[in-house]
Design goal:
Its EC number is 1.5.1.-. It comes from Sedimentitalea todarodis. One of its GO terms (molecular function) is oxidoreductase activity. This is Flavin reductase family protein. This protein has 201 residues and is mainly β. The chain has a single domain, classed as Electron Transport, Fmn-binding Protein, Chain A (Pnp Oxidase, Chain A, Roll). 11% of the residues lie in helices and 35% in strands. It has a 7-stranded antiparallel beta sheet, with helices on one face. A 3-stranded antiparallel beta sheet has the order 1-13-14, with no helix packed on it. A two-stranded antiparallel sheet has the order 7-8. β9 and β10 form a beta hairpin. The longest helix is centred in the middle third of the chain and has 9 residues. The protein is globular and about 50 Å long.
């Protein structure tokens, strides 16, 4: 099968998200200028550079109470900071709860039964007990082609790792089984890993 996206795929559901998988989930916490905390998952998320460490996520929709975007992007544009919380399998239901579209004045931490804790280097909350959290300063917001598509890039200025996730000097993902987004409403989680040595190692 071949199709041009502009012509449509003819399938019951869009296959694009199912092709580019698995995708890590960036559970983005931000804070509005009025102090309201926000927490939302984004599966268009990844790390993009080592030195300095940098991450990205993209938002592809909008809300009626924001100007052509979502709460996360609006908050980050106002404050210049955000935090990426890593999602473990055990807390998948709370993550899913924070994907619900609510008013910008509502706090998703409370709605999902999560405890916010202050970051160390930025004025923002992070998820207490997350396997890892990346405190970020905004570097740029890029408007992408298409309605309400925005790419957010940030430099990581502080890193939290849960102590029980560190084994033999490594951050061991099998200790918490990170959640990954697949296509449609499908998810997966990492339960085992293997190594491949590069040819030039």
């Amino acid at each position: 099968m071949f199709y041009r996206p502009q012509d449509g795929h003819g399938l019951p559901h869009n296959p694009f998200n199912a092709i580019v998988t698995p995708r890590p989930i960036g559970w983005i916490s931000s804070r509005a200028a009025d102090g309201t905390n926000n927490l939302a998952p984004y599966s268009f998320f990844n790390a993009v550079a080592y030195v300095p460490p940098q991450v990205m996520f993209s938002s592809t929709g909008s809300k009626p109470d924001q100007d052509g975007t979502k709460d996360s992007v609006a908050n980050i544009a106002e404050t210049g900071v955000f935090c990426v919380n890593i999602v473990e399998y055990a807390i998948r239901d709370a993550m899913n709860m924070t994907s619900k579209s609510v008013g910008k004045d509502e706090d998703e931490f409370s709605a999902a039964g999560l405890s916010p804790v202050e970051c160390e280097t930025i004025p923002c909350a992070r998820v207490l007990g997350a396997p890892a959290s990346l405190e970020c300063k905004l570097t740029q917001i890029v408007e992408l082609p298409g309605k309400s598509n925005r790419l957010v890039l940030g430099e990581v200025v502080g890193i939290h790792m849960r102590d029980d996730c560190i084994r033999d000097g490594r951050f061991d993902v099998t200790t918490f089984q990170p959640l990954a987004r697949l296509g449609y409403r499908d998810y997966s989680h990492v339960t085992e890993v293997f190594e491949l040595a590069r040819p030039d190692d």
